[in-house]
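User: Please run a holo structure prediction.
Assistant: Happy to. Please share the sequence and the ligand.
User: Here you go; the ligand is magnesium ion.
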Amino acid sequence: MATCGGEQPIGAPVTDLPGVGPGTAEKLERLGIATLGDLILHLPYRYQDRTRSVGFDELEPGKACLVTGQIMASSINYGRRRSLLTRLGDGRGTLTVRLFHFSRSQERSMRPGSWMRCFGDVRIGPSGPEMVHPEYRLHREEPPPAPPELTPVYPATLGLTSARIRKWVDAALERCDGAVASSLPDMPFAELLDAIRFLHAPSSERDRIDAARERVVLDELTGHYLVMKRRQALLKRQSTIALPSGPKLGRRLLEQLGFRLTRAQAKVTAEVLEDLAHERPMMRLLQGDVGSGKTVVAAFAAIRAAERGCQTAIMAPTEILAEQHFETLNGWLVPLGINVGLLTGRQGAPERRARLEAIRDGHDLVAVGTHALFQAGVEFDQLALAIIDEQHRFGVHQRMQLRDKGRLPHQLVMTATPIPRTLTMALYADMDVSTLDELPPGRLPVRTHGAAMSRRDEVVDRVRNWCAVGRQGYWVCTTIEEDEENELNAAESVHAELADRMPGLRFGLIHGRLPQAEKNAVMAGFKAGEVDILVATTVIEVGVDVPNASVMVIDNAERLGLAQLHQLRGRVGRGSTQATCILLYEAPLSAVARERLAVMRDTNDGFKIAEKDLELRGPGDILGTRQTGEQTFRLADLGIDRHLVPRAVALGNRLLAEDQATAQTIIDTWGGREAEYATV
Ligand code: ADP
Ligand code: MG
């Protein structure tokens, strides 16, 4: 709603509300709330049922509820910890309210005969059911029945309680009465605003809440789809450099590769080259499981551009991966007379200057880099193609930033995070999709085992035995937070420990803090077989390709999500040796962690893992926005709302055909942030 502009109350800043000063506005900003519209769309994520007092004979331990009773007695108990015990009765049973922290006046206020209404969790205490520190209020008379609406609980931030947010939401709703929002006559809640209003203060009918939520989620997903469609339409009107088939340098690469393309690689390469032949900018998503061979497809595309004297920018999410692409492409392209350059954030100034110069004057026809390639000061002579690898690591926003002389280059986005078909339809509606659905021949699925930390010694022994007879392996260290410092400490101590316990084996250590030159040296040593075991942080997660490595141990695997585990495991099983992956975990496992490890044991199929991952985790990751700290959807959760995606697509298409005004309203409601980059 942010885009509705000044004339709409919805676009007004939150500071327009009474009681919201700059300090509060800053806290709200942290929740992504800047305008009244944002506030209205900040929906509760759960509710408390305070609509009915539960009788003392029907209390359920572990459940939060509202109770009302009369004080029978109150006394201080001097047990292990001093506490104030107040015994309530409601004619059907008794309940004890226990306070560990209390003031003299609180103690005095618990007068027998007074009424008390509490909301809190019930547990079983020494003398029957009790509540510890419930929210409570005292009444002289029996209090009236509770209001019939459920109490919303909002995603809150430090210093902002749900109750305060609730107050501002109410004020915002009042101000925004009559604002423009979609109206869809054949839905249970025709008016979006009615559904929103209901969700902030619903009656306790579960069906109605579900219907209202569905109405809002459908609106949001449709909004996303419409923005993508609009972007696609805009793109169709743009033109860029057409790259028709030229001197056929690709043929020469094919002869020199040393392997034959899989059927899938051949097909996808043809799709990409066909796109490039036209003036309309290519916008293609290439998805293929880890190890399916996406890099070579990228190489053929870059060759096509180079044949026309045009440049290609290839962006990788990590330095290690950029370095590796650089090496691979150097090996493939230099023999064809195509210069490849590397640009990363950690290069020294003279080297960087030299690279920038070579990119500017067109000497480097292929520039490989990290996000350093996005930075101002990088000018191309004739950029025609941008290839973005492992796209889930970049924000959606960045994927459009690279332009040359106001012109969009052709774009190829490669991802190893398989996205279920139903989702690509809506989420990547602005892109064409190619899929590498086949692995190069001879690959054996990685055998995966779980092992509790208590068996770590056994695991060390096995790894030592394997590596003593010439296998190579990774030992991956994880930390709880994504904190480089911690990760580094963990990796260093594991490195020391293992080196001590496996005398005779050669160890390497790699982590994000290592200077580029050392990283390269370590990776090169591992590739050349001079290192038996590479102790690594999760920096090796994406893309790293050392076909001889066939052993992987992931320390504290329970800390990682499925997508990350799958990516890591993809580092082994790239050659013809049967590979093994051991997931070391700290017991006891949470239910979700147990399920994740079971999925990893049961399948190597990236699509199946992605489906399962959606079920097991929260929203956000699939569009890659979590990395940049932005949430893609306000309410929709692809884990639970996937079934609405086809409906959103159908609705979006119908509106585009029959009701442009409503389509625009929906875009305005949800498109605020996305619209910003829709036009680039
Ligand atoms: P990813 O899709 O994960 O990026 P890569 O492009 O890194 O995969 O390829 C994985 C490995 O498979 C590389 O060593 C690459 O040289 C090799 N490879 C790619 N295509 C084939 C093929 N058709 N036959 C044999 N090996 C291949
Ligand atoms: Mg790759």
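Residues 259-262, 265, 288, 290-296, 416, 440, 543, 545, 547, 574 surround adenosine-5'-diphosphate (ligand 1) (CB under 6 Å).
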